[in-house]
Amino acid sequence: MSDRYAVIGRPINHTKSPLIHGLFAEASGQALEYGAMEGRLDEFERQVLSFRDEGGRGMNITAPFKLRAFELADWRSERAQLARAANALKFEGGSIVAENFDGIGLLRDIEENLGEPLRGARVLVLGAGGAVRGALLPFLQAEPRELVIANRDMAKAMALSDEINHPLLRISRYEALEGLGFDIVVNATSASLTGELPPLPQGALAQARLAYELAYGKGLTPFLRIAQGQGVTRLADGVGMLVEQAAEAFAWWRGVRPETRAVIDRLTIPLE
Questions:
Q1: Can you tell me the distance from the alpha carbon of 167 to that of 57, in angstroms, rounded to the nearest whole number?
Q2: Digit-coded pLDDT (tens) for 195-217
Q3: Distant-in-sequence, close-in-space partners of 122: CB < 8 Å, separation ≥ 6
Q4: CA distances in angstroms from 162 to 61, 85, 86, 133, listed in the order given
């Protein structure tokens, strides 16, 4: 009988996780079943516990349940604690262990797949929500020259900076980004999902080598169009991050890290 895993979220019909983990299992010779579960707002915790009690070995967690998964866990990694959210759970001897691979998946995609090391780079991250929380620890461990967070809600961004308290991390207003000269810019706001433009001043991205959009499969989002208009020649969306964080979870569960290139290529939609 194959080991059972699943992803849970709401809505879940868009998820690529069963396809990704199925491809990983096939390529690495692992026997497992991976399904998708529509989460219920009033029964999420019961659904997770039932899946565990019925023999499930682990779960991926997607919106809107990452915080609740973190709270449900008995043990939490440093990355999950910093993000205060979990995107993966492992069931061990009746205990629930929480991890957050979103940030390390993003870092791996930028550094290894796109060939843009963060070490010594000036990095700008737009937004201060859960996705940014998950990315901060891996990003700072990569030793950038500077990591700047810009957000509409300055109080939220300042609270995050105070909590992290790292010498390479600073906060900026959007209007103060003009001409600062960043190497890598990551959009972690919801602007591209709502069709809005991030309030970036003209020229804020002019020196960037890479503009990275966390959303994937959306084509040239408003953020990527801004970057393109300001002369950024290398644009990327988050499909590589999606696959890389899945590979981290797969390795955590199975002890085997799968190759990701073929899966990324299969899921990539050209930016047009």
A1: 39
A2: 777 778 888 898 999 999 998 98
A3: 144, 145, 146, 148, 180, 181, 182, 183, 184
A4: 28, 19, 22, 13
Q: Residue 50: its pLDDT value, please?
A: 97
Regions of the chain short of the pLDDT cut 50: none
Domains of the chain: 3-100+242-267 (3.40.50.10860), 103-236 (3.40.50.720)
One-letter amino acid for residue 11 of the chain = P
Q: What is the pTM of this model?
A: 0.92
Fill in the amino acid letter for 185: V
Active site residue 218: no
For the chain, the C-alpha Rg in angstroms (whole number) is: 19
In the chain the beta strands, taken as DSSP E runs, fall at: 3-9, 32-38, 56-61, 75-76, 88-92, 95-99, 122-126, 146-150, 169-172, 184-187, 210-213, 235-236
Point out the catalytic residue in the list 16, 66, 156, 218.
Answer: 66
Q: Tell the residue number behind the tokens 């998708």, with chain if given.
A: 36
Phi, psi of 89 (to 5 degrees): -125, 145
Tell me how far the alpha carbon of residue 242 is from its chain's centroid.
7
